[in-house]
Amino acid sequence: MRRLCALTLLLAVACAPLAAAPLHVDKVAPGVYVHIGQHKDVDDGYNGDIANIGFIVGDDAVAVIDTGGSYATGMALKEALRTVTQLPIRYVINTHGHPDHVFGNAAFVRADGAGQAPQLIGHARLPRALALRRDGYLRNLKKQLGDGAEKSDLIAPTLTVQDRLTLDLGHRTLELTAWPDAHTDTDVTVFDSATGTLWTGDLLFIDRTPAVDGNVNGWLAATRQLKQLPAAMVVPGHGPVTRDKNLALDRQAAYLSTLVRDVREGIRRGDDMTATMTTAAASERGRWQLFDAVNRRNVNLLYPRLEWE
Amino acid sequence: MLAASACPIAATAQAVADPWPALQTSLFPGKKLEPAPFIHVTAPTRAASGDQVPFAFAIDHPMTANNYIKSVTLLVDANPVPLAAVFHFAPESGKAEISTRIRFDTDSPVHVVAESSDGKLYVTAVTVKASGGCGGSVSGDDPAVMAAAGKMKMALGAPLRVGAINKARLLIRHPMYTGLQRNLTTNGFRPAYFIQKVAVSYNGKPVMVADTSIGISENPTLEFGFVPDGPGALTAVLEDNTGATYRQSIDVGG
Question: Which of A149, A307, B15, B220 is deepest in the core (most CB within 10 A)?
Fold first, then answer.
């Protein structure tokens, strides 16, 4: 009998799915755990671990907020979660559809242990956005991560947010808000009323240069609205957790409005896109990380759009 | 984070053979292509977005009545449709010179092949790194996109100078659907819909004609030169692959 037990134990260890080293998470408030992603560019040393991801623990269940840029990152987040609690993961929330936030969904599609598989939750437009970008995102990920992309997949939400949604974790509710076209057209924020913690997803970048995709004017409008929300603490999509939400939002608004103004000015002067890439928002350069790469991409996206204003 | 470059084509093999020898054989059979340092190319080594990659060439070559560059072929080797455009020039162009934006499905060499009026072929190549952007995510509002297709803005960069090379810029509103982008409702592909010809003339004489394909970015832009013999009308006529035509004319220097 003892031998059998030893054998079972051995097998269990050998067969344990991906004994990934748990991600480092910080407890930023009671029951609120965040892993801070690294500021690496997607074209330079990308490792699938650049976004802030984490989880919130209630009395009955856990909600994961964003899953990272690969299956491996998602698994490592799950390992970290399991060092904190054995409660079931009831919800996996995607704050938007960008690959650095969603590819880890694949690590959460099945229930670990007893209970049901988690519900995947995202913006009402997220299923369509993921379907449209699926092939390109997968191909890019393989190019960026090679074998590290293994098992990563874009898994669409099973429950979507049109406007607002309240989730119950047991004596703890999360308020989800779906936003109009801003950083992307699939932005969702999460507010934990127990601690006053607001997860903005990529509606807020701190330190890392904000990356434009959706609608810059919509993003500026969302930035203004976010300033009105009460929040004791904010977890941004990239960069450190802050208690000074409005300072961070103001900095982001300064970058975005400077960028738009300078691209318009470049077009008006007759500067071409390449020239505008080096001049637009140059005054903001010292304030942001990865500025050169991200700002060029932003101009590349905005210039052709603003030409037709 | 991560800029949006959706590549609607299914993932293809990573390492493929160099497509250039076969392209050269099929497009320029039996011809010798002479390396040409006088073809100057401006392109990023690493593009910020594969959807809209700024690309320009300028060819230092006489443009006289009996010795000029008559056409320039632009090939993005690794694209599903490598032939992005063929530009046709005349002595009235002043210089075989174009600035535009093109699509890259993946990292690729670009070959610029110029043919002179005596039939000689010249070539130069550059390589551009671009993260999968072979056509954008096409999430735009279809009816609005279709209604705007064919709209143009054309302007000179500076007041007209008679007898000298003047630069004109033509902006075209058009989705340039590749035929390789997914249509989510049918689960098939959105049909190709693109500008296939841009013909610009000055006072009735052609100065730049481009046979364009899906390798040209959405909302195409073309900057080109022309030498006016006096004040007159610069006219652009577009033709798309459904046969629809669009025309715009501006009076300059009058």
Answer: B220
Minimal CA–CA distance to B24: which of B93, B81, B75?
B75
Find the CB nearest B139 among A132, A136, A300: A132
Predicted confidence (pLDDT) per residue in A149-205, tens digit? 999 999 999 999 999 999 999 999 999 999 999 999 999 999 999 999 999 999 999
Q: Decide the pairing of beta strands A188-192 and A197-205.
A: antiparallel
Cα→Cα distances B146→A133, B141, B193, B198, Å:
22, 9, 10, 18
Which residue on chain B is closest to A237 by alpha carbon? B1
Task: Evaluate if residue B9 carries a pLDDT over 70.
Answer: no
**A301:B1 CB<8 A:** no
Q: How far is CA B115 from CA B37, B44, B67, B190, in A?
A: 14, 25, 11, 35
CA atoms of B45 and A68, how far apart (whole Å): 29
Contact across the interface for A140 and B132, Cβ inside 8 Å:
yes
Amino acid at B236: A
Residue of B nearest to A37 (CA): B1
Domains (ranges, CATH) in chain A? 19-244 (3.60.15.10)
- Domain architecture of chain B: domains with CATH: 34-252 (2.60.40.10)
Section B159-184 average pLDDT: 91
Q: Do A132 and B101 touch (CB under 8 A)?
A: no
B184 contacts on A by Cβ (under 8 Å) = 128, 131-132
For residue B167, the Cα-to-chain-centroid distance in whole angstroms is: 16
The H or E element spanning position B114 is strand B108-116
With a CB cutoff of 8 Å and minimum separation 6, the contacts of A95 are A65, A66, A101, A187, A188, A189, A190, A199, A200, A201, A202, A203, A237
Greatest Cα pair distance, chain A, in angstroms, is 84
Left (φ > 0), alpha (ψ -120 to 50) or beta: where does A239 sit? left
Nearest to A307 among B47, B171, B182 (CB): B171
Q: Is A232 on the interface with B (CB under 8 A)?
A: no
pLDDT value of residue B15: 52
pTM above 0.80, yes or no: yes
